[in-house]
Amino acid sequence: MTQNQTAVEIKDSGNQKSQTDSGLYSKSNLDALKHASISIIIPLYNEQHTITEVIDKIPNHQQYEILVIDDGSTDGSIERVKELKRNDVRIIKHQENQGYGAAILTGMKNATGDIIITLDSDGQHNPQEIPKIIKPIINDVADVVIGSRYLGDCSYKMPLYTKVGQYVISTFLRLLFLQRVYDNQCGFRAIRKDLVKIFTNMRHTGMGFSTELLFKSAFYKYRIVEIPVSVNSRRYGHSYVNLIKIVKSISSCILYYTLKKFKLNTNHIFITKIINYFYKKIKYKKIFQ
Ligand SMILES: Nc1nc2c(ncn2[C@@H]2O[C@H](COP(=O)(O)OP(=O)(O)O)[C@@H](O)[C@H]2O)c(=O)[nH]1
Ligand SMILES: [Mg+2]
Fold first, then answer.
1. Gyration radius (Cα) of the chain, Å
2. Whether residues 34 and 94 fall in one domain
3. What single string gives the DSSP state of each residue in 144-162?
4. 43 lines ligand 1 (CB under 6 A)
5. Is the pLDDT confidence value at 288 over 70?
6. Is ligand 1 within 6 A of the CB of residue 52?
C-alpha cells in the first residue's frame, strides 16, 4: 500500500449497519476515509490463543495494512498468523525480545499509512472500533487518539495500582501540558503518520513507551484526544507488565519531561541516578514484592 493509493469504498457488511447508525460512516467521514490509508501495528509476544481472532476481526479493506511485530515469541504465535494466509498482513520479526515499545517503533518505521493504529494482540481491544478511533484525526481535531475505558460503559476492572499510576500520570500531564488523558496506559491508539518523526529516539522501549509517547506528544504541543472504547478482560495467559520496571520507567519519564519543560538538566545518567537513589531510599523491593 502506498500513501497515494486510491482506497476503495468500505464494504464490510458485518459492521456496516451499526457503524452507519452511530454516524461513524457518515458521508463526510467516508469521503475522508477514502483518502486515508491506515497502518495497524500489532505488537505480538506469545499470544498464540488470541492473535488470529484479533486479526480476523480486522476487515480486509484495501486501505488497511496490518503489521504484526513478533517480538521473539517462543510459542506458536507466528505459525498461527501464517496460517491465516491474508495478503494484507506483514510479519516483522525481532530475533530477540526487545519490549512492547521497541515492537511499536519497528512497526512505525515500516508503516506506510497516513494514520497509525496500535492495538494489543491479547484480545483486550476490539478492532471493529478502528473507524471510531481514527475519527478525531479524520475530522482534524486530534493528532493522537487514545482509547479510554473510563469513558462510556466499559465493564473491565482495572487493578488498583494501575488506577493509581494512571492518576499520577494524568495529573502531571495536566499540570505540565494542560492535557487530559485518564486512561493513559491503553494500547489502543491512533496517531497521525507525520508525528512519528518525534518518536525516533525514545528513552523507554518497554511498557513505559505508552507514557513517554504521551509526554512527548504533549511536550511538542500535539493534540491528544480520548475516546470511549470497550476493553475485554484477558482470557489467556497473564499480563506482561512488571510492576517495578514500569513504576521506575514512568517516574523517570515524568522526571525527564518535568525537567525538560522547565529547561533544566535532562541528562540520562543524572535522571537514572536520581530514580535509583529514590527507590533505594524507599526500599521499593519491600513495598512492591
Ligand atoms: N512486542 C511485544 N509485545 C509485548 C511485550 N510484552 C507484552 N506485549 C504485548 O503488548 C500487549 C499488552 O501487554 P499486556 O501484558 O497485555 O499489558 P496489559 O494489558 O497492560 O496488562 C499484549 O498484546 C502483549 O502481547 C513485549 O515484550 N514485546
Ligand atoms: Mg493486555
1. 19
2. yes
3. EEEEESTTTT--PPPPHHH
4. yes
5. no
6. no
Q: What is the pTM of this model?
A: 0.85
Task: Determine the Cα–Cα distance for residues 285 and 242; give it in Å rounded to an integer.
Answer: 13
Q: Is residue 41 classed as helix, strand or coil in its secondary structure?
A: strand
Q: Are residues 233 and 246 in the same domain?
A: no
Per-residue pLDDT tens for 260-287? 999 887 787 888 888 888 877 765 555 4
140 and 39 assigned to the same domain? yes
- Our answer on whether the CB atom of 122 is closer than 6 Å to any ligand 1 atom is yes
**18 CA to centre of ligand 2 in angstroms:** 26
69 pocket-lining for ligand 1 (C-beta < 6 Å): yes
Total structural domains in the chain? Answer: 2
Ligand nearest to the backbone CA of 186 = 1
Residue nearest to atom 14 of ligand 1 (CA): 239
236 and 287 fall within a common domain: no
The position carrying cell 505540565 is: 176
